[in-house]
Design goal:
Layout lengths: L1 H4 L22 H14 L3 H10 L1 H6 L12 H11 L3 H18 L20
């Protein structure tokens, strides 16, 4: 999953979403990735935040250090609120799709599941 999500977004893609002053916040690219994983895994905000804190597979998918403390679950709702403003969600999706198309044209696209050999029995469904 990391290979498929890595590089879809970078923090610079979210530069106009956040103020430029103050202390650095969480990586918006990582928060976008958490939202995708949250949807794919069917997790609540609390469960997603807990998965970021405790699950090695989620930390790996997000390219996080194993000792990364994660974040409070309310950060996800705040991120979604920012995402809902204007056409941000559409722009973010368009950006991800453009990067996936670019990767596919360069031969770097995530591979799909291999076609099973002809000798495998076919399902009668």
């Amino acid at each position: 999953m990391r290979g498929q999500l890595d590089g879809l977004w970078c923090d610079e893609d979210f530069a106009d979403w956040y103020p430029r002053d103050g202390r650095p916040g969480l990586s918006p690219a990582q928060l976008a990735t958490v939202c995708v994983l949250q949807f794919l895994l069917g997790l609540s905000d609390r469960q997603a935040a807990e998965a970021v804190r405790c699950r090695i597979d989620v930390k790996y998918a997000m390219a996080m250090e194993l000792d990364d403390p994660g974040f409070h679950h309310s950060v996800l709702a705040d991120f979604r609120d920012r995402l809902a403003e204007g056409d941000r969600a559409d722009r973010l999706l368009d950006l991800a799709l453009a990067r996936l198309k670019e990767a596919a044209s360069c031969g770097n696209a995530p591979r799909s599941a291999p076609t099973p050999p002809m000798s495998w029995p076919r399902c009668g469904i």
